[in-house]
Amino acid sequence: MKVIALCLIVSLSVSCKEQMDTSENNEPALSFLALGDSYTIGESVLETERWPVQLKDSLKAKGVIVDDPKIIATTGWRTDQLKDAMTPLEKFDYDMVSLLIGVNNQYQGKSAEDYRVEFEELLNLAVERAGGDKDKVFVVSIPDYGYTPFGEQNQKTITKELNEFNQINLAITSGYGIRYFDITPISRGGLDDPDLVAPDSLHPSGKQYSLWVAEIMKDVEFVEALKGRGK
Predict the structure, then answer these.
(1) Residue 47, C-beta contacts closer than 8 angstroms, at least 6 positions apart
(2) How far is CA 45 from CA 36, 97, 191, 209, 210, in A?
(3) Which of 16, 93, 165, 196 is 20 to 30 A (C-alpha) from 141?
(4) How many CB atoms are closer than 10 A to CB 138?
(5) Is the pTM here over 0.90, yes or no?
(6) Which of these, 93, 79, 151, lies nearest to 122 by C-alpha position?
């Protein structure tokens, strides 16, 4: 009997926790689709240190409950590869959709003009996944790996090319009236503060990702817009 009672208590405790996580403020948890490459999947950092996961946690602290992010991202992906990976997706009503893509186009020597075309295609696909609501989509700029031990030797070239790619994604994003977060300046602190770089000497650390999230959370309108968005 004691065993049964204990199991019941544990079951109720878990059930209550799940209910708190998904129905705080009497609202269902928001769904979150994060699209990208190594920066979104969090290469070389713990899962809890990925920026989409840290964003989820920061939003929770503000009373916005978000489900675990659905991450469609792989290290090395270019825009065309991300587009191919999105084809089988069946869900088209995410409450939040993020897009961060392009560093591998630059790294692999792909043209800026191809990036322009493919980024816009991806942005439209992101809007589709948000049920056609562009207010549910946001874009994150490409960080500058020229300010890492890996890229330091070619920093000038990397920075110049990534500036061009970011100018393209900013112009397209702004043209659609979609929210854009410029985290590139944060990434350029990597040589001055080694703690901003992961142990692989290339990717952002969990600490740097936390600064990205802090930058996103500065947008009060963004946070307020999420409140009450649950379906």
Answers:
(1) 53
(2) 16, 22, 18, 10, 12
(3) 93
(4) 21
(5) no
(6) 79
Contact predicate 102/119, CB 8 Å: yes
Does the CA dihedral 161-197-211-86 come out positive or negative? positive
Over residues 62-116, the pLDDT tens digits come to: 999 999 999 999 999 999 999 999 977 778 999 999 999 999 999 999 999 999 9
CA distance 202 to 131: 35
Strands (E), 58-145: 70-73, 96-99, 137-140
* Residue at token pair 């960080």: 143
Assign residue 217 a region (left: φ > 0; alpha: ψ between -120 and 50; beta: otherwise): alpha
- Sheet with strand 32-36: strands edge to edge: 70-73, 32-36, 96-99, 137-140, 179-181
**Torsion angle in degrees (nearest 10) through CA of 15, 20, 23, 25:** 150
Task: Report the pLDDT value the prediction gives residue 227, as an integer from 0 to 100.
Answer: 86
Q: Provide the residue type at 203 as one letter.
A: H
State both tokens at 198. Answer: 């992961």
